[in-house]
Amino acid sequence: MDIENEIPQLQFRNDYHKAIVNIIFTSNWLQEKIRQFLLPEDITTQQYNILRIVQASSIPLSTMQIREQMLDKMSDTSRMVDRLVAKKLVEKRMSEDDKRKVAIYLTEEGMQVLNRLESKIPEIDQLLHALNADEISLLNKLLNSIR
């Protein structure tokens, strides 16, 4: 659906303004769809991002190292890790290399959550089903160019 139909009262100054509003609107739409996808597991998108980062790492990571890899760099990573600890999805342990540091480890329950979500990832991919492979490639190229 065209952005003019989604936000009918909005007047665009020019196509740049229209594109910016469209990107923000689409980003919010995607974030809401992903939030709904994660809701059954009672985790946020940022918490999911942390779980994926910890899972993908071959070495234990500190909260600072996790923050550097997060999609949302403004997140309060320490607080989110503490919430994941409370949910028993990760645990904090003293770093074996440096006893002054704390390393974050994925728990068995955290791995089970990721496995359940992984089996449903095609649902997320389907959010962009309106685009074919060439269009997805072009979209990625255009978004990279913007940044």
Q: In words, what does this structure look like?
A:
This protein is mainly α. It has one domain: Orthogonal Bundle (Arc Repressor Mutant, subunit A). Helices cover 59% and strands 7% of the residues. The protein is built from eight helices and two strands; from the N terminus they run αααααββααα. The protein has helices spanning 3-6, 15-38, 45-56, 63-69, 77-86, 108-118, 121-125, 133-146, and strands at 90-94, 102-106. Strands 1-2 form a two-stranded antiparallel ribbon. A hairpin with a 7-residue loop joins β1 and β2 (102-106). The longest helix is centred in the first third of the chain and has 24 residues, at 15-38. It is elongated. It starts with a helix and ends with a helix.
Question: What is the strand content?
Answer: 5-15%
Order of helices and strands: HHHHHEEHHH
Annotation field: number of helices:
8
Q: Span between N and C termini?
A: 25 Å
CATH topology: Arc Repressor Mutant, subunit A
CATH class: Mainly Alpha
Mean pLDDT: 92
Number of spatially distinct domains? 1
Structural class: mainly alpha
Helical content stands at: 55-70%
What strand order characterises the main sheet? Answer: 1-2
**CATH fourth-tier homologous superfamily:** Winged helix-like DNA-binding domain superfamily/Winged helix DNA-binding domain
Radius of gyration: 19 Å
Any idea what the shape is?
A: elongated
Q: What CATH architecture do you see?
A: Orthogonal Bundle
Give the number of DSSP strands.
2
